[in-house]
Amino acid sequence: MTSTTTKPAATADESKAAKPGTAVATQVGRGSTNIADVVVSKIAGIAAREVDGVYDLGGQAARVVGRIRETLPGAPDLTQGVTVEVGERQAAVDVTIVAEYGVAIHDLAAGIRSNVIDAVESMTGLEVTEVNVTVHDVHFADDDDVATGETSAESRVQ
User: What letters, b where the CB count within 10 A reaches 16 and e where it falls short, cover 9-41?
Assistant: First the structure.
């Protein structure tokens, strides 16, 4: 993505205003655009959740806190399990997931990587240098039954 617009030379005060890692500042001929880290985190989190085979995002502690947060009114935390590092023109993303049992993890990671890169680059204009996927756990469908007290097997005694 190249730009052919011209921009005036930056003054010393303007060059100090953009701090890498806090917000992305893009200069164009008539102003600047700032993209905060949390925006990139939310985009990456939504993109990762869209991939079939992702049960949840985050490690054990993050998921427990996420379940507590879900009981409170308000929007869910879309940045759970996502860490980003944002520079002036590039971003790096780390995603921690729980995979569905039976899904090929290498294919799942490739799908997450592709979806996150496409979403972040198309929505922000940043170049994504890397997307690291950590599979923290595997979810079994039977885990939901055990948690609710249901069992699929019949009782052995009457």
Answer: eeeeeeeeebeeeebbebbeeeeeeebebebbb
